[in-house]
Amino acid sequence: xxxxxxxxxxxxxxxxxxxxxxxxxxxxxxxxxxxxxxxxxxxxxxxxxxxxxxxxxxxxxxxxxxxxxxxxxxxxxxxxxxxxxxxxxxxxxxxxxxxxxxxxxxxxxxxxxxxxxxxxxxxxxxxxxxxxxxxxxxxxxxxxxxxxxxxxxxxxxxxxxxxxxxxxxxxxxxxxxxxxxxxxxxxxxxxxxxxxxxxxxxxxxxxxxxxxxxxxxxxxxxxxx
Amino acid sequence: xxxxxxxxxxxxxxxxxxxxxxxxxxxxxxxxxxxxxxxxxxxxxxxxxxxxxxxxxxxxxxxxxxxxxxxxxxxxxxxxxxxxxxxxxxxxxxxxxxxxxxxxxxxxxxxxxxxxxxxxxxxxxxxxxxxxxxxxxxxxxxxxxxxxxxxxxxxxxxxxxxxxxxxxxxxxxxxxxxxxxxxxxxxxxxxxxxxxxxxxxxxxxxxxxxxxxxxxxxxxxxxxxxxxx
Lengths: 225, 229
What we know:
The complex is a heterodimer.
Chain A: H1 5-20, H2 33-38, H3 43-66, H4 76-98, H5 100-106, H6 108-111, H7 117-125, H8 132-162, E1 164-165, E2 168-169, H9 184-212, H10 216-224
Antiparallel strand pairs in A: 1-2
Chain B: H1 18-62, E1 68-75, E2 78-81, E3 97-102, E4 108-118, E5 123-131, E6 136-144, H2 154-157, H3 159-162, E7 168-169, E8 175-177, E9 187-189, H4 195-228
Parallel strand pairs in B: 8-9
Antiparallel strand pairs in B: 1-2, 1-3, 3-4, 4-5, 5-6, 6-7
């Protein structure tokens, strides 16, 4: 062991946290747009899709990371797909058994988790190259970041489009819902505004960080030229 | 020495034999199959029970006063009552079924009939209750639809629209009219802004009734005869 314990655990924490904020799969990497736009019409659907994706990503990363030295390079993508598809089918059965109503509303989009590029992307880019602990931290962080993003969109769309949150009516009968928000265009509007906000936030932070660093004026001038 | 986790493994993977490639995929497929079959066997009874419960609740809603039902299947041109725990048919054509609803005194009070019809978007699948004594439709419920939220999807919950189905005559034929123009008992008042969806519901009821009515009447006659004996 040439690594002290504290460095190792801070590395794990870093891999976990990056998915939630700094490298958020939806707001920063803009991955997994199909479920992000299609099933975020209510907060419950967003949460269910987020948790289903979390389940699949967590267990796929666990398997891929623990088998990373066994799977030959030439067939790795095929093997990852088999692993992912298996967990997606399991989650499909489980949702149908536990929450049939939600399963009915999510419909084909549960099966489409197989082709969520977030999941295969994490296997190829991270889990197949790192140990189990880091792979799980990464998977949990990324999927919580994904769930958080879906919830952000779902909450906005449900409040504006149906006047309710988690099926609880908020404004009473006097509220005229913005129907467009629960239809497909509403997904694009909400995502667009949230992306705008997150980019603005990141720009601000970058400016602030650069402002604190000595010699930035020179660098800025050079960039400008 | 432990491998440095921050670096991707730099060495090129050793050349794998063809056998190893096939074996890896074979094993992956095998274990995947094991997991899927166990998940399927575990969840299947729960899913079937959920479905049966949803159907039962829908039947009780479209047939007010109904407390039990019996499944009737179309076989060789007539309705046959199925046993409670009848085996699901395997493969082949989907069986055509309706449901006979009974009240607390175990009297046949009506039939719950499913139907489907293309709406504004995709099929509208619905279940409705039919009272053969009065020859009226007494309840209606949409089971599946993808109609436009806020407009067409009012066919699912709109109270004024559902008031049409408290006693809707099926003779001579069910027709859909504009809101406020309902004069006869066989007319459905459409929802403003959702004419296409409303008309789909009208067609659904009319078509389904036309197909099932002769069969239901034959069954009803037999039941009456047995009941009076």
